[in-house]
Protein: NAD(P)-dependent dehydrogenase (Short-subunit alcohol dehydrogenase family)
Organism: Nitrospirillum amazonense
Amino acid sequence: MARLQNKVALVTGASSGIGRATAKLFAAEGAKVVVGARRQAELDSLVAEITAAGGQAVALAGDVQHEDYNQALVALAVEHFGRLDIAFNNAGTLGEAGPSTGVSEAGWANTLAVNLTGPFLGAKHQIGQMVKNGGGSVVFTSTFVGHTFAFPGLAAYAASKSGLIGLTQALAAEFGPQGVRVNAVLPGAVETEMYHAANDTAEKRDWVNNAHALRRAGQPEELARAVLYLASDDSSFVTGTAQLVDGGISITRS
Ligand SMILES: NC(=O)c1ccc[n+]([C@@H]2O[C@H](COP(=O)([O-])OP(=O)(O)OC[C@H]3O[C@@H](n4cnc5c(N)ncnc54)[C@H](OP(=O)(O)O)[C@@H]3O)[C@@H](O)[C@H]2O)c1
């Protein structure tokens, strides 16, 4: 039987990369899926792909920084599919990179808004809905950057993504009694638009790929399978974790 039969799932950052692969896998596993990101055309093509494969999906474009957008995604899940069981808060930005002594206040604030405040506002509304069904699973996308592996020049990104691990633990403790599990996934480098933006030369790609024990970057589908585990009842006794899915970059400290 499909692993997400009768489940309703919400995925942010679904227009490309890890989020897109995960939305497709969730749908293939029987979930009805609400997908979000800013690019409407990419969301529309994702909905078309899922529908063509026999799944069900609906999209809403917007910016995760804003509480009303997060609220609208949850409302859409309830309107279209009657409930919400799973939320993958995955949208993220690298933000302003470079030496930390030069990072602007606005750049810092924007990175925190997209990567940390947005997922918090998402979880706030998602969990409120999930407890009405007796529980659910929330997953955040964190990272190896600055947490398990030194990566100079991405202070705001590292701080925002490490913040998600604290948020994961706080929410898992607070809502465990109501049946809501909350976990974070910590990808290694994954070949997506963000990876290519951050590693725009063959030298940079070789360096980061070789930092992994597996000597390569991951594929979005490899992350999707890990997120499926955290989202599904296969992980029914797993909560408050920071799950490494990182090709071993965390054991090759630089
Ligand atoms: N690739 C890696 O090596 C890697 C490693 C560790 C962690 N991560 C994390 O994985 C997550 C997914 O990234 P990815 O690697 O799959 O890269 P990606 O293909 O660039 O995906 C990023 C997604 O986030 C969405 N997004 C960005 N800012 C947004 C905003 N303000 N509001 C709504 N949506 C927004 C983008 O869609 P729109 O542009 O359409 O809004 C896109 O769907 C991110 O949180 C990233 O930090 C990536």
Summary: Residues 12-19, 37-39, 42, 63-65, 90-93, 114, 141, 143, 187, 189-190, 192-195 surround NAP (CB under 6 Å).
